[in-house]
């Protein structure tokens, strides 16, 4: 077997027990979305791409035709992003948007392979201050983001690519659970 695929396979086996957590998140998120709440998602680099992938599945569809749900990738508005970075600094780029778009009862999903990105940590703190449920998908624990959020799934892999590939599988599991609960 190819070395990269073997690492991925081994890591997927190690996170199989996280399926229960992600499915529970899906049930909770389905209730939030069905009641008119929203999902905010953030990350940097590849994690930002995965945050946007998740929100696209919820606004569009994953498998089933259904009404669109409110899901916002916090890096998706380039004008706001650059204005916030310019005026408040990079560490506030997501936190300020959480304060603007989040309402009590909403959900913030933070993605970070390191679990230590200052702007993602600030977003999680802003969520908690605003009564927003904060979940994290990270790389190996312990890490500051997993400790800060209400719940976390930590992927025990050293390579960023492997962590991100497992995050994508977990995102699809989350989407499946949301649609199943709706």
UniProtKB/TrEMBL annotation:
What InterPro entries does the record point to?
GmhA/DiaA (IPR035461), SIS_dom (IPR001347), SIS_dom_sf (IPR046348), SIS_GmhA/DiaA_subfam (IPR050099)
Q: Which GO terms describe its biological process?
A: carbohydrate derivative metabolic process
Its source organism is Nonomuraea aridisoli
Question: Domain SIS spans what residues?
Answer: 29-182
Alphabetically list the UniProt keywords.
Isomerase
Q: Care to name a GO molecular-function term for this sequence?
A: carbohydrate derivative binding
User: Where would one find the signal peptide in this protein?
Assistant: none
Protein name as catalogued: Phosphoheptose isomerase
């Amino acid at each position: 077997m190819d070395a990269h695929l073997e690492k991925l396979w081994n890591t997927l086996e190690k996170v199989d027990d996280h399926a229960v957590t992600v499915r529970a998140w899906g049930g909770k998120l389905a209730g939030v979305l069905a009641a008119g709440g929203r999902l905010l998602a953030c990350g940097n680099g590849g994690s930002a791409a995965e945050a946007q992938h998740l929100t696209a599945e919820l606004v569009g569809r994953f498998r089933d035709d259904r009404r669109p749900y409110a899901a916002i990738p916090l890096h998706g508005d380039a004008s706001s992003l650059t204005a916030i970075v310019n005026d408040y600094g990079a560490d506030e780029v997501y936190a300020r948007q959480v304060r603007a778009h989040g309402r009590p009862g909403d959900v913030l999903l933070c993605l970070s392979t390191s679990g230590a990105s200052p702007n993602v940590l600030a977003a999680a703190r802003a969520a908690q201050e605003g009564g927003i449920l904060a979940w994290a998908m990270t790389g190996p624990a312990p890490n500051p983001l997993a400790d800060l959020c209400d719940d976390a799934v930590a992927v025990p892999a050293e390579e960023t690519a492997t962590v991100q590939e497992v995050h994508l599988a977990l995102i699809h599991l989350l989407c499946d659970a949301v649609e199943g609960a709706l």
